[in-house]
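Batch job 17 of 40 flagged for manual review because the log was empty.
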Amino acid sequence: MPTADLAARARAVLDTVRYVVLGTVDPDGTARTSPVFFTHVGYRDLYWVSRPGTHHSGNLAERPRVSAVVFDSTVRVGEAQAVYLTGTAAEVAEPDLADACRAAFADVAPGAHAFTPAELSGAAHLRLYRLQVEVLEVHVDGDDPAYGTGTDSRQRVDL
């Protein structure tokens, strides 16, 4: 079954919703979710700025595998679109920071700040993080006329 429509749905969500909910894992194995404001580059790299001492940043330093979801929580029940992401996340290393900042902040949302490497390194309190997406899936309602199976599901798409 062609998935061009599903890919368009994924792009629409990632281009309009600005928060991703990151799922990291605590040292004792407990799941931890954290919403962060993000930008993306090519739908395969998601960037956000955070303090290294936050709970989720500490989890990433020890366990970089991440599950994440981007969804519009403002729509009516039954109309939600969601994109599920799985991959590896980490703080962007200082040698890569200039290129990563250029990419991550090339097209920032209104009201957002385009950080510079100086604001994200050295004595600065914030750092840049990147989720490198390995698997991208779209939520499909069980009653979807084109892709529904009677049960809600996730369909993998390549963007």
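Reviewer: the log was empty due to a logging misconfiguration, but the result itself is present. DSSP finds three helices and eight strands in the chain. Unflagging and moving on to job 18.
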